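Input set for joint prediction.
Command: fold jointly, output tokens.
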Amino acid sequence: MEVFQLIISGVSQGCVYGLIALGFVLIYKATEMVNFAQGDIMMLGAYVGITFISIWDWPFWWALPATIGVMALVGVVLERLLLRPMIGEPHFAVLMLTIGLGFVLRAIAGAIWGNEPRALPTPYVGEVLELGSAVIGYENIAIIAGTAVLCLCMWLFFRFSRLGIAMQAASQNQLAAFYVGIPVKRMYSLVWALSAAIAGVAGILTAPVSLVDPLIGFVGIKAFAAAIVGGFGSMPGAIIGGLLIGLVEQFAGLYLPPGFSDMSAYVLLLVMLLVRPQGLFATMQKKKV
Amino acid sequence: MRFIRKTSYEQDINLVKHGGHLLWYGLLLALVFSGPLWLDRFLLGEFSLVFIYAIAGLGLMLLVGYTGLVSLGHAAFLAIGAYTHAYLLNLGVPLPGAMLSAALFSALIGGLVGIPALRMTGIYLAVATLAFAVIVEQVLVHWESVTGGFRGMAVPRPQLLGIQLGQPVSFYYLCLGILLVCMLLVMNILRSPTGRSMTAVRDSETSAESMGVHLARTKTLAFALSAAFTGLAGALFAHRLTYLAPDAFTLITSIQLLLMVVVGGLGSLHGVIYGAIFIGLLPQGIALLRDTVPPAISQIPGLEPAVFGLILILFLIYEPLGIYGRWRKIRLFFEEFPLYRKSTYKRQKSFLRTERLH
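tokens >
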């Protein structure tokens, strides 16, 4: 039963990685930009949730949509201020820019909310579900369920809505999308809003499990590994990569000497890059001159 | 505006392009060599640090600025150099031997990291090096018999042939001397076929390959050379720190190194020096600033990385060519006065067409 317990906690941790990775992939798919600050945007989302729930005493089910809204706004503002001037610049420049952004966001969060870890009270915190001998916290179930619902929504959105299809078009060929009348720039803003909103949800889901401090954004690096393992640019790949890394970490923590658990995500990443650099769900072609 | 009529290949690859170079760089050399005469002990230490950063920056510039391979994990090579150096010194190996071994060992590891890098480009490579750096950091923490783990490791004082080199003045000259040697080496590499093929790889891999550049060899070599310079800088950095602990070589260090080459100006050796001065002296600048701004701002935790981040963002948006690029623009403005056109350095924007299949 210990294994079952590990699988559940691995899956729930993996879902958090997967959600952040989903944010990476969305932005990459739409704009070919790599947003290294995604983890820090998640941290910001967790803090916004804490502000609504524990500081302003809002009910959880009001705070959730409010957080999503605020984070979407943050995404739009970031895109307009920082990323819009970078359209057409090399990947590397954008990567560096978002790394810098991560540092700035961390300091801002530290200045507003302080550096002490904070907890997020939710209606389901502390309750457990007993399945045989395994004990599963409701917060873990919430993460898994939340991820599943979000993935379903994403799939429906990109498969059936006009907006979702327009976003895909803008991501495949800017110029052609522009010619057929898609407002490409607005699509970019919307993608950033969407990705920041997902990060906000990830923040609220993960906050009850791990306490929130300005440094939890570093989880983003593992999520980035997840996105690459899944094949950068593939949305199901992001989630599956996240689950894989979550599980590997849990099992490495049990069976390998201390220290390997922290490393395992990166070892997995390096092995993946060596064996199959394009990831599990490859979307890349050979680059043209 | 100076036009040089070139009549031979030797003239084209000459390190000294014209007499003005000789004059100005000679003056600069005289200035830095007389440093101990007009700098106090504290500033001498700070400038030694600048030189160390510049050596690491040379390595990183070779990789990022000239070969076009981005590394987010160069702190790992700094750490490998520092630990190898300290470990060998503790075993009783003399200073030059330990230093060379540090550089060679870093180069070896760099070459090994470079091999998988052949199959990756862009962000994949950046993330692979990042993963490598995290793994090295964990190894430093957990391999206690060699690295001392969190307890750290003492670095013996540098001495050569019975002469103490740990004093600020002698350490200043040690760092300066090694920097000059490295600088000459890099300048020579860059004008050799090796360096030219690196630049070709940066500009277009496919074109370079079809022109007969051996991609695998060039990239691995670039990685190894870059790691060697950074490892050498690590050896000096170990003396500067005097006590090694894993927390001196984190992701933030890697990003500082990268910030140095970006802010200095990618693809120029001047940029390395500008960047190193910037990175080396910025913490002092921030410390000065702290005294003048209200405590509500100066007490923000993580202020220093945030200032780094902010500067990085501003540079990338407004001056992607870095400090050196800004200097070139200013110089051109005066050389061509009043005919300077803003569009000379206009960035070419490209429309995005993905290489993804779906």
